[in-house]
Structures
1.
Amino acid sequence: MEGSKRRPSLDAVFICVMIFNTPPLELFPGLMSELQEAIVRRASELYETLQGDPSKATRLKLDFLERLLERVEGKRIDATI
């Protein structure tokens, strides 16, 4: 995991958090940035796919995706930390 040569397992992330008493963002900034980009990409794709459907259920999904994108994009992670 050192030097970001391989992706840590979920177990390894939690173990490191407990051992070093440090948030995952600080321990694995590159991984966290990569995951954030994946969330934004997928949420944006889904948002575009749902556009034009006037149903109430779709409106709820679109509202959720709008809030999600606002929140995630507002907390951009700098992978060089």
2.
Amino acid sequence: MNQYKYTAEAAARFNKHGVDLTVYGQADPSVTTVHIRVAEGHFEEFYNVKSSYTIYVISGHGTFYLNDEAVEVNATDLVAAPPGTRIYYFGNMELLLTVSPAWDEANERHVRFLEKNQIPNTPRP
């Protein structure tokens, strides 16, 4: 029998480098869907060697840094980062992330950790 519905209650929940993640079922190898809440920032710069990251900004505002390029975002904006794009971000936002193909820890690469005092001129509420 196919599973068509995935609930937040059954999802994996954890905090990773400043963001609260709710990771929904990994039943489909083509995509991972993640609900993200971030109050200040994602304090790790990283990239994925195989997957694209598509991020929809549900609410809030902030700045994504994609290969060192600052991209200001607001609610209803969509950020598309192809494989190999270095990513980190700051702001107070609620996000919906899709990772395709599905996220695999073996494909994620750490670049560096950032400190709060390294937040560059990011708009704050």
